[in-house]
């Protein structure tokens, strides 16, 4: 082997093939031997969907040494000339001068054979599934989206803020929180029959965060525009295709924004992200459109090519009640919209993304700003085709008295949120924000059906391996 700077396959496939010496390192996808004394080895290194074809003359000395070890799944390094391919299906290939095996993969045992495997099966071998075309493509798109999110906010002078993962406030998702403790559960200290959290690590009961919003508001009230992008935890026992126990959330929070501004930013954000991946991950998206969801590109175009429909909750309820559709969950003013209702509005009624706003106060959290009607709050949800809700947001209550009244009504402890109320006491400002579920976005952009297949290591009820 000659040690030169290794090339990524992505770069080689995109390059004009003037012959040159290259070094490629990757995993063997397939190997085909010809009668004429040649082997055709397809090597993939994850840099792009396609592999590169390496043509080996059986008389090469290094090949003779490892010939039996070059099997699907083995890891190899190859030296050779990058040349124009005479075969079909690729423009360039490598004429191998030397080959080395880093790691073998016993063909009788290697679980990833050339056939198609179900996504359920692949979840059981989550340590090997990144070597499949689909999971590889998902993770490239996911990484690109993360980059595009930072770019979007950076371009608009938002400050990237890291909010805590361990939190002592438990209003938002009381029943849905994972507790964090160092107490020995078998002999937890008690005080008057109840667990004595004063003796726990933090001296009080703590949990994993369900949202960074409240802390985000603190920094928006000083830096004007911030966003968080971090892990979020919800112990909701819902075994659906759109819920994880551990997921990533993006939460911008903006001083001086009202609900309209908030909806405008959400729309611009989604359109920006989707345009970015369409431009930068075209091969992967074509693959998804071909193999995973034939409507994928059409759905992405619905987002980039339309102004989002903005409709009041009350009007949405009217439309749903008048509809001929048989819903599993009946619709009444005051009810939470189910995924079937959301999809009906997006896919049947408007055929483009829809933002529903001004929800009944009873189904929304304490921090949302009351409307003058006295019965709705300035909340909004962005709904996409196929998926339903991808973003939830609101204008926050910035008036101390109104906020205190609403907290009392909803039985939220005002003492515990003294700091949140202080923000309304000192230099309060109108502000708004939203939360985007990052995996929901990846799901939408890739067409993948199950959210468990768009995160490297999914956590769901009874599943925390790897
Ligand atoms: P849903 O009604 O779909 O359960 P939610 O209303 O509880 O969502 P929010 O609290 O509004 O969710 O959270 C903001 C965003 O985070 C949602 O719009 C969604 O994209 C995402 N999200 C919420 N819960 C989950 C979850 N368990 N797994 C993955 N993403 C989630
Ligand atoms: Mn929501």
Structure description:
Helices cover 30% and strands 25% of the residues. The strands form four sheets. The chain has an eight-stranded mixed sheet with strand order 6-12-13-18-17-16-15-14. Strands 1-2-3-5-4 form a five-stranded mixed beta barrel. α4 packs across α6 (259-280), α4 (133-155) crosses α7 (282-291) and α4 (133-155) crosses α13 (438-446). It contains 13 helices and 18 strands. The chain is of the alpha+beta class and 466 residues long. It is elongated, with a radius of gyration of 27 Å. The site of manganese (II) ion has 3 residues, from β17.
Q: What is the gist of this entry?
A:
With 466 residues, this protein is an alpha+beta fold. The protein has helices spanning 9-14, 61-66, 119-124, 133-155, 213-223, 259-280, 282-291, 296-304, 313-322, 339-350, 400-409, 418-425, 438-446; strands at residues 20-33, 38-44, 52-57, 75-84, 92-103, 159-160, 166-167, 179-180, 190-191, 194-195, 206-208, 225-233, 246-255, 309-312, 354-360, 376-384, 388-395, 431-437.
Average of pLDDT: 95
Strand order of the largest sheet: 6-12-13-18-17-16-15-14
Count of DSSP E strands? 18
Q: Which oligomeric state applies?
A: single chain
Characteristic terms for this protein:
elongated; binds adenosine-5'-triphosphate; 466 residues; eight-stranded mixed β-sheet; single chain; binds manganese (II) ion; alpha+beta; 18 strands; 13 helices; five-stranded mixed barrel
């Amino acid at each position: 082997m000659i040690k030169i700077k290794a090339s990524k396959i992505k770069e080689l496939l995109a390059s004009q093939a003037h012959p040159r010496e290259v070094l490629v390192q990757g995993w063997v996808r397939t190997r085909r031997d010809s009668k004429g004394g040649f082997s055709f080895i397809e090597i993939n290194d994850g840099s792009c969907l396609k592999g590169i074809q390496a043509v080996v003359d059986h008389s090469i000395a290094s090949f003779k040494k490892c010939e039996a070890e070059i099997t699907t799944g083995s890891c190899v390094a190859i030296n050779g000339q990058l040349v124009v391919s005479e075969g079909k299906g690729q423009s360039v290939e490598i004429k191998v001068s030397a080959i080395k095996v880093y790691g073998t993969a016993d063909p009788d045992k290697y679980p990833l054979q050339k056939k198609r495997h179900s996504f359920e099966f692949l979840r059981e071998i989550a340590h090997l599934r990144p070597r499949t075309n689909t999971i590889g493509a998902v993770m490239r798109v996911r990484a690109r989206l993360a980059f595009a999110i930072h770019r979007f906010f950076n371009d608009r002078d938002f400050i990237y803020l890291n909010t805590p993962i361990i939190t002592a406030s438990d209003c938002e998702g009381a029943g849905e929180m994972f507790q964090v403790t160092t107490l020995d559960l078998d002999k937890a200290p008690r005080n008057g029959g109840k667990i004595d959290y004063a003796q726990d690590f933090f001296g009080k009961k703590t949990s994993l965060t369900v949202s960074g919003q409240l802390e985000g508001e603190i920094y928006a009230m000083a830096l004007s525009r911030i966003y968080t992008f971090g892990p979020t935890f919800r112990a909701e026992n819902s075994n659906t295709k759109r819920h994880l126990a551990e997921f990533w959330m993006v939460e911008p929070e903006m001083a001086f924004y009202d609900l309209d501004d908030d909806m405008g930013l959400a729309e611009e954000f989604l359109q920006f992200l989707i345009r970015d991946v369409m431009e930068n991950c075209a091969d992967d998206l074509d693959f998804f459109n071909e193999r995973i969801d034939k409507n994928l590109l059409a759905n992405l175009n619905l987002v980039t090519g339309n102004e989002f429909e903005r409709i009041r909750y009350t009007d949405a309820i009217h439309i749903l009640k008048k509809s001929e559709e048989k819903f599993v969950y009946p619709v009444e003013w005051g009810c939470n919209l189910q995924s079937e209702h959301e999809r009906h509005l997006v896919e049947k009624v408007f055929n483009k993304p829809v933002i529903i706003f001004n929800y009944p106060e009873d189904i929304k959290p304490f921090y949302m700003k009351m409307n003058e009607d006295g019965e709705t709050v300035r909340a909004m949800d962005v709904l996409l085709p196929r998926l339903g809700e991808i973003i939830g947001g609101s204008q926050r209550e910035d008036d101390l008295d109104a906020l205190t009244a609403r907290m009392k009504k909803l039985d939220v402890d005002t003492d515990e949120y003294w700091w949140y109320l202080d923000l309304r006491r000192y230099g309060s400002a109108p502000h708004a924000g939203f939360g985007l579920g990052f995996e929901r976005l990846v799901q939408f952009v890739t067409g993948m059906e199950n959210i468990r297949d768009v995160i490297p290591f999914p956590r769901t009820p009874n599943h925390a391996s790897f």
